[in-house]
């Protein structure tokens, strides 16, 4: 299991980005959270098996919805947490 913290910039708020991340996480079987930041970016914590987390990050970088335009993504490995599901936070 691995955990990554992502900060995603670009046109990522108001375009269904968080909901698309939720659906993608459910499809890949990863857990964590996604939330909007006051900076206009989106923050994501994703945790799971390395293959699934890598697929999740790659899809997020491409834009999980056709309306999003990801310009940059910062990622950092983080300690594992006790997530039971993937949630949208406010």
Write structural notes for this entry.
This protein is α+β, with helices and mostly antiparallel strands and 90 residues long. The chain has one domain (2-78): Alpha-Beta Plaits. Helix content is 28%, strand content 41%. The protein contains two helices and five strands, in the order βαββαββ. Strands 4-1-3-2-5 form a five-stranded mixed sheet, with helices on one face. The longest helix is centred in the middle third of the chain and has 13 residues, at 50-62. It is globular and about 30 Å long.
What is this entry, summarized?
The chain is an alpha+beta fold and 90 residues long. It has helices at residues 17-28, 50-62; strands spanning 2-11, 31-36, 42-48, 69-78, 86-89. The chain has a five-stranded mixed β-sheet with strand order 4-1-3-2-5, covered by helices on one side.
User: Percent range for helical residues?
Assistant: 25-40%
- CATH fold category name: Alpha-Beta Plaits
CATH C-level name? Alpha Beta
Count structural domains: 1
Q: Name the helix and strand elements from N-terminus to C-terminus, one letter apiece.
A: EHEEHEE
Helix and strand composition category: alpha+beta
The CATH architecture can be given as: 2-Layer Sandwich
Rg: 12 Å
Low-confidence stretches: none
Question: Biggest β-sheet: count, sense, barrel?
Answer: 5 strands, mixed
Strand order of the largest sheet: 4-1-3-2-5
Kindly report the oligomeric state of this protein.
single chain
Number of helices: 2
Distance between the termini: 26 Å
How much of the sequence lies in strands comes to 35-45%
Instruction: Give the total of beta strands.
Output: 5
What average pLDDT do the residues reach?
Answer: 97
């Amino acid at each position: 299991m691995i955990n990554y913290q992502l900060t995603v910039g670009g046109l990522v708020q108001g375009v269904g980005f968080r909901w698309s991340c939720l659906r993608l996480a459910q499809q890949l079987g990863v857990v964590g959270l996604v939330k909007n930041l006051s900076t206009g970016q989106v923050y994501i914590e994703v945790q799971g098996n390395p293959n699934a987390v890598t697929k999740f990050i790659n899809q997020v970088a491409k834009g999980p919805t056709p309306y999003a335009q990801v310009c940059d993504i910062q990622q950092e490995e983080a300690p594992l947490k006790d997530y039971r599901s993937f949630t949208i936070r406010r």
